[in-house]
Amino acid sequence: MLVLDNVSKFYGNGVHALDTVSFSVEPGEIVAVVGGSGCGKSTLLRGIAGLDTPTKGRVFIDGEPIHAPHPKIGIVFQEARLLPWLTVAENVGFGIEDRAKPERSELVTAALSRVGLADKAKVWPRELSGGQAQRVAIARALVPRPAVLLLDEPFSALDAFTRIDLQDHLLDLWADSRPTLILVTHDVDEAIVLADRILVMRPRPGRIFEEIDAKLPRPRDRQSAAFDSVKRRVLAALDRSLNRSVRHDDTDTSVAAGAAHWW
Amino acid sequence: MSAVGVTGRAEIWEGAKAVSPIRLLPVWRPFLGLLLPIVLAGGWELAVQFGLSDGRLVPPPSVIWQTLTELAASGELQRHALATFTRVAVGFAAGVAAGTVLGALTGYSDLISRLLDPTLQALRAIPSIAWVPLFILWLGIFEASKVTLIAVGVFFPVYLGVMGAVMSVDRKIVEVGRAFRLSGTQMVRRILLPAVLPAYVIALRSGLGLGWMFVVAAEFMGASEGLGFLLVDGQQLGKPAQIVTAIVAFAVIGKLTDWIVVALAAPFLRWEDRFARQTGS
Fold first, then answer.
1. Listed residue (B195, B208, B202) closest to B258, CA to CA
2. Which of A152, A206, B55, B244 has its CA 20 to 30 A from that of A79?
3. A51, B195: Cβ pair inside 8 Å?
4. What count of CB pairs under 8 Å joins A to B?
């Protein structure tokens, strides 16, 4: 279980990025964090990853405080961040260099075929498309079998079709070992397709504004009425988090307007 | 009206074809660059043969070739080339070692950079030849002063190149290393070294080029052997063919050593995404 206990973060330049954020995530749960720009959602993720240390408060994984990157936690960034001097297969095996070679190549081969890139094992990252590169990055993060996988706007640089494809793909991979997923995104649809629970954050200082339950049955239909009603709740919460007047008319136009303006 | 337009266009098309009557097979294209030097050399050779010039100050290719083979046959050329090569090798090794260590330190640490870089940049501004008298006073007229001068010449481009390369390592890639909990030495071996390698090879090559430049300056200041000595000797005894021979030897060995650096690094740089390279495996 992942626990955040009153996590606050001040940057040296006086920016109050996070203010007493507390929540806990059950093993295997998928949590999406949404919010306007500058609400500290990336800072939050970096804190959990151990890449940044909170100014106050602590993060625990299975009761153990996190001070530095932890073996139980993996991360996927917005950009694939593959190492250009390693082949695709070597990139996927980057985090399991300490294992014996046969085991490593077995795990890498399995992971690559799992993300549908078995034929790309020997190519350089520069030869991959954006979506393929991000699939490799996900495989690289999952190969060491982390208990928690953090995703920092992982699909935001991809086109709409690739994005939807990869969202489904991610759920597929998640089903293999059911790690905890914490996903930062500013795509509300993405949050609802993936998450069991959506945390809406509020900027300046960044704090959790509202928690929305999104336990729709899987696989989720992006066109269903239940999906739409969760979407309305999330957009309304986002609007309120930015001190906008709450819209009471639940028409499609208000949803569209909210979707266009909240960030 | 339209008929005129059509014939007009047809003529232009014919004209365009007529402009490029020579079609070279791709195999021969690299040799196109050799055409001009060969024509010039051949022309000069003929001019001397037909008595249009005595070729005393500008020796024709045949005389240069003769000098070259004579010097090579007597072993003189090899002796001088080896002496020069040894100086460059030792000076290059010393300059690269110092430049790499200091460049890595100043690139990595802001504090060390603030401490050392201003002084080093000030020293860099001094034309390195200006050190010659001082080096002779300090180190004598034999090998030590020559090698030191070469090392100084090699040091600065390597230092600058390494510092710049280390400073420009992508923070995001380093973060990947941190996320996978690499230790300090692992971080250097698996992230930093490969990341700086392309720029390092360029720095080594410019350092090597300067090394070959400075060896001539070093050998001008009094040497009894070396290609630079051949140059001075040829000037003093009025043997222009010997000078040209030494120059040709410099060109060949310089190019060869540069090629060796490139060839040694090539297997490690296959991943590079160069804009001029075709994509695809």
1. B208
2. A206
3. no
4. 51
Cβ B230 vs Cβ B80: under 8 Å: yes
Residue A252: which pLDDT band, with cuts at 50, 70 and 90?
very low
User: What are the chain B neighbours of A74 within 8 Å (beta carbons)?
Assistant: 179
Nearest chain A alpha carbon to B279: A127
Domains of chain A in sequence order: 2-261 (3.40.50.300)
Nearest-neighbour CA in chain A from B112: distance (Å): 23
Mean pLDDT of A124-147: 90
Bridge partners, B59 (sequence order): none
CB contact under 8 A, A74 and B179: yes
Mutation site, B169, B171, B180, B189, interface A, largest A CB count within 10 A = B180
Nearest C-alpha in A relative to B171: A81
**Span A175-227, pLDDT tens digits:** 888 999 999 998 888 999 898 899 988 888 888 888 888 888 888 888 888 88
- Chain B: residue nearest A95 by CA? B180
Domain ranges in chain B are: 63-268
Whether the predicted pLDDT of A256 surpasses 60: no
**B23-to-A157, A162, B11, B215 alpha-carbon distances in Å:** 47, 47, 21, 45
Q: Compare all CA atoms of chain B with the CA of A94 and give the residue at the minimum distance.
A: B180
A139 closest CA partner among A113, A104, A171, A167: A113
- The pLDDT, as a whole number, for residue B1 is 43
Q: Kindly indicate whether the ipTM for this predicted assembly is greater than 0.90, answering yes or no.
A: no
pLDDT level of residue B277 (50, 70, 90 thresholds)? low
Identify which of A94, A123, A124 has the shortest CB distance to residue B180: A94
Assigned token pair, A72: 């139980």
CATH topology for B63-268 is MetI-like fold (1.10.3720)
pTM equals 0.78
Confidence class for position B20, pLDDT limits 50, 70, 90:
low
